[in-house]
């Protein structure tokens, strides 16, 4: 089902600063408001939902319906109006935990230009149970002590639906890029369906290193990375990795009572979004504080649009978010680390971290080395300056250039 374009959209709601404003926003959330909030972000594209005479691409928003009842994946398709017979495989871009494709609003123009230039396509897809995809029940049958069983079930919930989406879209092979948990799941997909992925681009991927002491607490995501207009990207060096890890250690919070409570709730299957939803009318204010603090480098208009979008997808029915305690342990390290699994990959793999990231870039470095030892010399790790965990948004110029370069790399 496509989102119908409108002649004009209502302005994004202001970030609430009072209980009454928060109450009004909470009351107004829903599927329709969510669709409008996402459309507001993507209408920055002049070719959104309409084919211009001189545009090499057109962008359309659809629900790709899967075979299982009430399941669909929300998709933004950016396709060439002049597809080339020898075009490279399209790019499929997947968001992180609890996020949605709207987070990539500053990346779509550059990626659209790549699709137009190469006669290919770009697809932005919400994971099942997240963003604006179907919020179906998430259940795990394996007992708590069966870690491999829990991980396999949780991963399959997402990657099997992505494979079904691929079949529906009639794609033979594609380049797969994912952020954070989306990066983790992208690797899991490539391991299970190796013939369908031409290359992997992992943006601050979760679950890579095996040592939990080297991954700092998720609270660092709430801090805005120092804003930088620099588009510099550098190959990861041991010196740079050590600097980032030293910053992570310095920012690691003590084991307070609230921290212990957080770990208990995590193990019991709670999610941060469940906590926000449980505040009811106060939810928009909590999300507003997060939006203002974390995305302070954006313009006022972009921040308002992001707040409206995050508000709607966060307050939607809980679903895929409950995977987190089965895939990751408290502190965001994987129960089955990717560094021990990805040597089986035979495709190019690119790791991208921010220089103020809270994901440990050492995991990427170790993975590159493991891939090289396994005979795969097409693995690299990069550090993007002026960026934190949301590296694609904190320094979009640098990341856009890097993604395009990696897509064009043989």
TrEMBL record:
Sequence ranges assigned to domain AB hydrolase-1 in this UniProt record: 89-395
GO terms classed as biological process: cardiolipin acyl-chain remodeling; lipid homeostasis; phosphatidic acid biosynthetic process
Keywords in alphabetical order: Hydrolase
Gene Ontology molecular function, alphabetical: lysophosphatidic acid acyltransferase activity; phospholipase A2 activity
One cellular-component annotation, GO: mitochondrial inner membrane
Pfam families noted in UniProt: Abhydrolase_1
Annotated region described as Disordered, given as residue ranges: 212-233
Key word Hydrolase present: yes
Family: Belongs to the peptidase S33 family. ABHD4/ABHD5 subfamily.
The protein, known as: Alpha/Beta hydrolase protein
Organism: Mycena belliarum
